[in-house]
């Protein structure tokens, strides 16, 4: 158990089931605000993760929900992902996201000591947290090729970009911790600090490049745009990077 002032970060259990609906509602609201989609999860799915001991929850001493994250396994346990990281708006920028990520990473290493731990993110802040834990930026080819995992991207507004790039690239940056071949956290932390401005520029370039490519494709095939009724890409990207 870890504490940040009045915030407790711990492994979730069956007694936390009452938080499940609040968690899923906040996940959906946060995804809409960012303009990015995540694989939708039901309260029942979140409760199952709690019962299995594959989740971390944060709350205040008086029981107010603060944050949550859970573990998913892919490719028969060869890969695991720390998914669904969410923090209540009232507690953002308190450092609790970093605490949750650290706790869920430790839990993943305990439950799946040989598994590669990976994540996808569009945010520089999450990249920094991951780097502090020992994750390294990698190509998509180094991630799980489990079709079930990639199917979860269908609910994301960027899914068409992922398919256009033949699942080799997208708006997200892939990061991986390989227990059999990795740098020490201090090394990845220092590397990120040194290259953070470079990563920020790369994220901006990726956004601009994909936007231009997709607008060109959309212009050539207006019937596809009409059939899918996609949102305005300009609006979508401004939401992601605002």
UniProtKB/TrEMBL annotation:
Official protein name in the record: N-acetyltransferase domain-containing protein
CDD domains per UniProt: NAT_SF
GO molecular function list: acyltransferase activity, transferring groups other than amino-acyl groups
Gene3D superfamilies: 3.40.630.30
InterPro entries xref list: Acyl_CoA_acyltransferase, GNAT_dom
N-acetyltransferase domain sequence ranges: 55-111
Domain of life: Bacteria
SUPFAM superfamilies reported in the protein's UniProt record: Acyl-CoA N-acyltransferases (Nat) (SSF55729)
Entry-linked Pfam families: Acetyltransf_1
